[in-house]
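[job 0412] stage=complex_fold ligand=pyridoxal-5'-phosphate status=START
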Amino acid sequence: MNSNCDIPSLALPRIAALEPYTPGLQPSTDHWIKLNTNEFPYPPAPGVAEAITAEIPKLALYPNPTAANLRAAIARHHGLDPAQVIVGNGSDDILNLLMRTFAEGETRPSAMLRPGYSLYPVLSAIQGAPCHPTAFDPLVGDANLDPACFAQHPAPILFLTAPNAPFGTFLSPPAIEAASTVFKGIFVVDEAYAAFAPANALPLLARNPRLVITRTFSKSHGLAGLRVGYALAHPDLINLLDRVRDSYNVNRLSQAGALAALNAVDYYHEHAQRIIQTRENTATALRSRGFTVLPSSANFLFCIPPASNSLEAPTVAENLYHFLCEHRILVRHLRSHPLTAQGLRISIGTDSQMLQLIETIDAWTPTQINEPQR
Ligand SMILES: *Cc1c(COP(=O)(O)O)cnc(C)c1O
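[job 0412] stage=complex_fold status=DONE, emitting structure tokens
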């Protein structure tokens, strides 16, 4: 290698200095119980595989640039107009379009409630825009949305993860409405986990043209590998995002697969109910073992292992993370924030996967773990 060639020095300084997003591990072998990235633990609905297969002979042709059929079906599904819908390569693509459209440099910062989805600050940093955090406390729920705090906020765009990730905290539509109405910029409600919650912000859309709702097929429709998400918003806002998006941002297989999944309403509703039931059973099992388990309206639980007299909470959580890893169970330990470092975020799998998790936890005591290596 030519050592005179310092490529990072040629890049935008903010990109050379960028702290990239760290996704959860995706192990390359199947011998894991994977409870670390909130994926759907069941197969896709009958009809999804066939719809994808039927597109294969047409792969030489570009896909529909706007995913028009899928937009129309999503609009119908939510009782909206197709002009209020844009589809993306996962909802991450949508979040990126929103950030690129509204945030740039010091004078156009973004905002988020933190802890929240940790991709927002990365997308913001790419725009050279600071991402201003407002502290989110999972113990106070709707009180995180004090309108007085949002009325004064100068950011042109704000991201709210509702239900919250990584805690699973439910935020009620009236509280979201009160905050979003007084906020002067674009108020994005990231509803990746709406299928597992008792209510969502959809009814607020008609009353606030600055509100955006993002959804995904990844968590509740078992299509994380296909990459399909969407935004619902005022047609003027959708029009802006369409100018920024790649011409063919959703591939042919993804459009067909998502369309078939959208048609299987009963299948996905029934499986979401099953996941909710498994979540509640798992929470009960963990609480009976001395864990603090936050109430969750998502397909994961945030839980803090019982205190150990000689160890700090983050150390106990780290110990359990490693113990589960040794037993081929992957969960998430988010060390970057003091609140999240105390516990583990555990995705809800099938009943039998959760049973195995509980049995493994029963075999664990924090003191038997050596210093974690990483
Ligand atoms: C998983 C997740 C996303 C990303 O979803 P994709 O559609 O797979 O890109 C967005 N927001 C939150 C809060 C998530 O947890």
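The chain has a mean pLDDT of 95.
[job 0412] exit 0
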